Amino acid sequence: MTTAERIRLTVIEELTDGRINVPTAALKLNLSVRQIKRLKKRFKQYGHDSLIHGLRGKPGLRKTDMQMEMEIVKTIKEKYHDFGPLLAWEKIAAVHNIPIGRETVRAIMIRNNIWESKKRKRGQYFSWRDRRTAYGELEQFDGSYHDWFEGRNPLLPETCLLASIDDATGRLTKAIIGENESVEAVFAFWREYVEDIGIPVELYVDKFSTYKINHPMATDNLELMTQFRRAMKELGTNLICANSPQAKGRIERLFETLQDRLVKEMRLAGINTIDAANVYLKETFIPWFNDRYAVIPKSSSDTHRKLDTKTVKKLDNIFSKHYIRSINNDFTVQYKSRFYQLQEIQPVTVFKTDKVLIEERPDNITSF
Q: Is residue 58 part of a domain?
């Protein structure tokens, strides 16, 4: 018996022996007179056991059937051994058609040592920032190096996922898997973005960023951030550099989700190549992600600016690497350890020591 039940037993024994009356017993136990009379009657019929809850020791009516639980455990261990409870529940319900609750699956996985409950650690305090008001007002952008194919493609032990997420809606606006986070890859990403969606108002990136050489597979040069900032400035997009990963937490949490869910979904779909992964991202995963996680913004406006005809013609110029060089005394220009001789007749008059702009475009064509 519990402590409360033993106290109740003492009072009912006093009532039965005639040492107290019914109103006094009701006051002591904070029960109604009617309930005290029922307890007294049951005590006389069944003794001490009548004061113990009738369901104690009996299995609950909503308890999961043991055979079903064993089937779920077997399924998870065979196919979803490294899945979290939420993702495992989704697959069990959608693929295997087993009607069971999400938290029940979590409890089963913990009970059978498949999943260990994570305890949050107390860390540095960060206050929440309100979402932006409208779609396209702020895009958070970053790249994530990871073994996205889990070793199924020996030629690609590690690839880079470039992704942007809208701050107001939480929509995964674009995601592309490539070999690295080079300036060419970043430019290709944003050229497709502005052509398909439009030009965002602001862009949130790392302060020191992965746009510099801080990864062995990155092929970008030391001027990458300068090139990227220059391109965004020409498009009229304000570039914001975060002081910490938590400042752009939406894209950081996105990568945590993708490194869990996207990796497993591509495994189940048998995807082992970059081309197949990008098709899957565009046609299947991104629409599913946005249907599941996107929220309704405060404003229904789309603040992306559409490209005009002149800007479309200038995209090759904008998304190319720009370098400033001086004209030598012999009217040559040095670029990447090579000398280029200027022709005697130029569209405009040039002099020695004048500055010229060199454009290196993604198609490897260099223009002056």
A: no
